[in-house]
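Need residues for this backbone.
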């Protein structure tokens, strides 16, 4: 049975965004429940009735907090994005060498792949269900991916004269590892990904001198 209350995110450190004022417990429960279901089953496969039943809230309460299912989905994406931003910031907070941020990002990707209940990338999964570039859901996905690419590029700027190209390699490898990570042995995928990151670092001459 799907444990919706655990919000089984691949980022493993998912934390629900809170407003400056005291958040509504019902809203948080709705978002937490929906997030777990969306990630585990797919967004289109989950209806409002299932969310209401598992979250144990009324339809009126749902619409008081989220005008539509799409609004809930956008918040799901934004909350996932914030959780990953926070986790990445913590992982790269104290660099010990020029390449430590790159390796910290790689280790974070591996930790995601090895998370119990891993079902691939929540953002790529959602993008497959909402391919329209103008859709607010797709826009929220693109905002996350743009931030992640820029973060990787900044990390590589400390070790190479070609940070854009290196970051592109890293993100493509990460996307492939996320797809393979829910189809094959996670340990094997993780080792292969880390080996590939070593290859990226060796392929692009450093600029620290």
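Answer:
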């Amino acid at each position: 049975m799907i444990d919706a209350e655990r919000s089984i995110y691949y980022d493993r450190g998912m934390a629900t965004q809170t407003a400056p004022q005291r958040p509504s417990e019902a809203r948080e429960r709705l978002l937490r429940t929906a997030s777990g279901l969306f990630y585990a089953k797919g967004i289109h496969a989950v209806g409002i009735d299932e969310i209401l039943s598992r979250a144990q809230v009324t339809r009126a309460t749902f619409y008081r907090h989220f005008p539509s299912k799409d609004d809930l989905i956008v918040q799901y994406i934004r909350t996932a994005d914030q959780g990953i931003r926070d986790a990445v910031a913590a992982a790269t907070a104290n660099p010990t060498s020029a390449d430590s941020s790159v390796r910290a990002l790689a280790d974070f990707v591996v930790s995601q792949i090895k998370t119990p209940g891993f079902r691939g990338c929540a953002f790529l999964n959602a993008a497959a269900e909402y391919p329209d570039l103008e859709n607010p859901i797709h826009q929220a996905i693109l905002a996350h991916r743009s931030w992640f690419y820029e973060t990787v590029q900044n990390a590589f700027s400390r070790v190479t004269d070609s940070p854009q190209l290196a970051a592109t390699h890293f993100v493509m490898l990460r996307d492939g590892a996320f797809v393979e990570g829910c189809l094959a042995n996670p340990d094997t995928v993780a080792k292969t990904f880390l080996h590939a990151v070593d290859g990226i670092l060796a392929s692009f001459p450093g600029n620290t001198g």
